[in-house]
Amino acid sequence: MPQIKAAVSHAHGAPLQVQTLTLRAPLMGEVEVTLKACAICHSDIHFAEGAWGGKLPAVYGHEAAGHVTRLGDGIRGLAIGDVVVVTLIRACGNCATCNSGKPVLCPAPAPHPGPLTAGDGTPVEAAMDSGAFAERVVVDQSQVVRLPDDMNLVAASLLACGVITGVGAVVNAAGLRAGQDVVVIGAGGVGLNAIQGARIAGARRIVAVDVTDDKLAIARDFGATDGVLASDDKPWRAAKKAMGKGADVVIVTVGAIPAYDTAAQYLAPGGKVIMVGMPHSGATSSYEPVRMAAAGQSMIGSKMGDIVIARDIPWLVDLYQQGRLKLDELISRTWPLDQINEAIADTKSGAAKRNVIVFD
Ligand SMILES: [Zn+2]
Ligand SMILES: [Zn+2]
Fold first, then answer.
1. What protein residues have CB closer than 5 angstroms to ion ligand 2?
2. Measured in angstroms, how far is the CA atom of residue 326 from the centroid of ligand 2?
3. Fewer CB atoms inside 10 A, N or C side of the chain?
4. CA-CA distance, 245 to 351, in Å (whole number)?
5. Burial status of residue 74 (CB atoms within 10 A of its CB: 0-12, 13-18, 19 or more)
6. Ligand nearest to the CA of 277
7. CA of 287 to the centre of ligand 1 (A)
């Protein structure tokens, strides 16, 4: 069985250790992908810090792209050498949830035990069904989407999570129509994608809300028409002034409770708050139900942009190849796996853009 280099978490809050693990062969319905790139997401950092629990030891990493190098039995539509994006969205394809168009919510358990073990034979968790801070992964075929052979794999890795979560929140969860007004709270990795999703979908005004002028300037590069500092007194006033009215859609892309507590303040009557950012488990938010009920407003949770990867990722690749979806501009720096702790520290320092681990 192949030995691979992977970044392993042995204790929440401790640095990851790059070590050799054993990766079993793909079983029925699984493929092995040799990775070219894996982006670092804030979710990886939350897991590594223990914010959401989870088994240890574990390999995080879930925004990846590479080449198919082995096939299990029963694989259709994929061949050795195919260029693919690897996502954490494992869906059985047969249950009521999958068939209602929400494969991101598929409740079916994984059909096989995880693929990773340490040298002494103890299992190592491939977190988020991925374990992609590693040279190779074995994943369910439902988690991968084939890309054009000439697709840039470093850019493609971003399509696995941050891009689909942000764009999907706008086009899938909110169902934004051309000419509507959008507020995006948080102009980080997901927020910038909500902003460019709103631009692609034809929003009228796109107001970014964040804590620094630097982030608001980057937000404008991705399509924001206006920027408001979250530190302003009642920032929804400035946002409503920019739009001339309340927002049809507010996308909350940060996990900060104050952002959730105040999100409905930005809304027009009939508007929707889309809940994307994930606070720590147990954190609660408060809002004024009577105002939202009387104004016909709603709060809607959105996981992974309600994405249907086989439908939406080829669409996004096409937009990228037309120059309408920015991916290269989302990358702040690439790093080797051996420097993953430095790359994570850089992401935690608040950089808006993605750091990407690149494998040789
Ligand atoms: Zn992610
Ligand atoms: Zn299912």
1. 91-92, 95, 98, 106, 108
2. 31
3. C
4. 31
5. exposed
6. 1
7. 27
Nearest to 193 by CA among 228, 154, 219, 156: 219
- Beta bridge partner(s), residue 116: 23, 124
Q: How close is the Cα of 37 to the center of ligand 1, in Å?
A: 14
pLDDT tens, per residue, the chain with 360 residues: 789 999 999 999 999 999 999 999 999 999 999 999 999 998 899 899 998 889 999 999 999 999 999 999 999 999 999 999 999 999 999 999 999 999 999 999 999 999 999 999 999 999 999 999 999 999 999 999 999 999 999 999 999 999 999 999 999 999 999 999 999 999 988 999 999 999 999 999 999 999 999 999 999 999 999 999 999 999 999 999 999 999 999 999 999 999 999 999 999 999 999 999 999 889 999 999 999 999 999 999 999 999 999 999 999 999 999 999 999 999 989 999 999 999 999 998 876 688 999 998
Q: How far is the CA of 256 from the centre of ligand 2 (A)?
A: 31
Ligand that lies nearest to the alpha carbon of residue 193, given by its number in the listed order: 1
Model pTM score:
0.93
Indicate left, alpha or beta for 44 from its phi (over 0: left) and psi (-120 to 50: alpha): alpha
Ligand (nearest to CA of 107): 2
- Look at phi and psi of residue 247 and say left if phi exceeds 0, alpha if psi is from -120 to 50, else beta: beta
If you ran DSSP here, which 8-state letter would residue 236 be given? Answer: H
Distance in Å, CA 63 to ligand 1 centroid? 6
Ligand in nearest proximity to the CA of 101: 2
Tokens linked to 318:
């096409």
| Residue 250 CA to ligand 2 centre (angstroms) | 29
How many C-beta atoms lie closer than 10 Å to residue 151's C-beta?
19
Q: What is the DSSP letter of 202?
A: T
Ligand positioned closest to the Cα atom of 109 = 2
Ligand 2 centroid distance, CA of 9 (Å)? 29
**The pair of three-digit structure tokens given for residue 171, joined into one six-digit string:** 């086009």
